[in-house]
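Predict the assembly for these two chains.
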Amino acid sequence: MALLRVKVWRGAEQGAFQSFEVPRQASQTVLDVITHIQRHLDGSLAYRFACRVGMCGSCAMTVNGRPRWTCRTHVDTVAEDDTLEVAPLGHLPVIRDLVTDMTPFFDKWARARGQFSGARSRHDDFARIAPDDADRRQVDAGIECIGCGVCYAACDLVSWSADYLGPAALNRAWTLVCDARDAANPARLRAVGGDAGCHACHTQMGCSERCPKKISPTAGIAGLKRALARALLKGEL
Amino acid sequence: MSARSETLLWLAQRASAAVLAFCVVVHLATIIVAVQGGLSAAEILARTRGSVLGLVFYTTFVLAAAVHAPIGLRATLGEWLGWRGAARDAVLLLFALALAVLGLRAVAGVFGGAA
């Protein structure tokens, strides 16, 4: 049986790669490989997953140097000479082995005012927004984010500026800026426009390149810059 | 820095970049065309002194550069050296003023005075 040589990060911030040999299977995903190691080779391996079908955003890791969602990443597409190197997601504190602490990532969503803030009550009628409405289309383009953190790990700005809100939080803010039902603007624009906000983005597009859901946070960040400029010119900031 | 200030800087950098894109192209084209066959400093000054068009163009060029360069340097200093805050911005304001003063002095030297 063909074997895959897998190096897996063990430890926390300090640690080392441990080597395993895992049988190759047809249509095998990287998450399948990690699960095989934990269930058959070393039960102490810590990793995180839930849905296994690309919906929950739990299983992102660094695979052969690049952040990826492991449940939808086939070994065939990433293994080089039948070897894999799997490490925890970058730019986040490592709790143990392949498990990162996502707290800083989601705290930044809160700082970017990523919560929907509606002005209607249950007694009001539904907001009627046409499917082809321009703002609605912007929301559609960014709303499928699963919060996996791949974009955050792929962004150089995050490594250079620890306070930088990051692509996912800014993308979330952009979907709310474009949401006609939301009532938190321009306060949200002020939240995403400071030193650590959208203006720090250099449009290198690492986030858009790596996003497993094919979202372009870069486009959303550019939209936030334009929205901030308009708000400034209208005297709303 | 506040969202308002940050947005102002962003607009200033975008606007100055647009001006620089035009000025740099004109500047390079002028140099390449003008030096065909060689030019001495005296010949250059004979052509430039008293040129109102040249004075206005290069004054615009210098001011755009004085706005654009410090804003870009601000991000570089923050990201590469971790230098942020009021002290950095004060130093960069001085840098902007130095660029403007030295540049305008050069413009006055080349384009000022009678032909």
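Chain B has a mean pLDDT of 93. Residues 34 and 79 of chain B are 41 Å apart (CA to CA).
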